[in-house]
Design brief:
two-stranded antiparallel sheet, 6 helices, 29% helix, ribosome biogenesis, YceD, Large ribosomal RNA subunit accumulation protein YceD, YceD_bac
Length: 167
């Protein structure tokens, strides 16, 4: 395996290996860097991947992805920082029957079939996309145009209600 992003997941987990790295959003797949929420494609994310065995002796990969991603606020369209700090445990299974059985008994479980090669970059990309908020927004948007538009104005239907009640 000459690509440093490719690992043998079973060996990686069995040998309790670890891997750390960083990616710019622009280095990731188009489905990530072209996402409409990202305000800066040069933002950096770091990751840590740790292999091991759980108490049932199942192989697993613990993935942590961190970074501050500038996202466009969907209210004011100005950039806002989004603190990304996501950790997931991916349990590895040799066959689909074992995976299905484990997933049925534990709804929280993240599992996958053991592959000969696993692309770490793709794991990081998936983690980023799953962590993005549905509609990123500032707590309080400092946008004069929005503030003016949202000011309390008299309800035009209140006048109609007044006319109706005066009959």
């Amino acid at each position: 395996m000459s690509d440093p992003n490719l690992i043998d997941p079973a060996a990686f987990a069995a040998e309790k290996q670890s891997l750390q790295g960083k990616f710019l959003l622009s280095q990731l797949d188009e489905r990530v860097w072209s996402h409409e929420y990202f305000a800066d494609k040069q933002a950096e994310v770091s990751f840590t991947l740790q292999g091991g065995r759980d108490r049932w002796q199942r192989l697993f990969l613990d993935l942590n992805v961190k970074g501050v991603l500038p996202l466009f606020c969907q209210r004011c369209i100005n950039p806002m920082p989004f603190e990304l700090d996501e950790t997931s445990r991916i349990v590895l299974f040799a066959d689909e029957a074992s995976l299905d059985e484990a997933m049925l008994s534990d709804e929280e479980l993240e599992g996958m079939l053991i592959e000969k090669e696993l692309n770490v970059r793709e794991l990081v990309e998936d983690q980023i996309l799953m962590a993005l908020p549905f509609s990123p927004r500032h707590e309080n948007c400092a946008n004069a145009v929005l503030d003016e538009a949202n000011q309390d104005k008299p309800n035009p239907f209140a006048v109609l209600a007044g006319l109706k009640s005066s009959r």
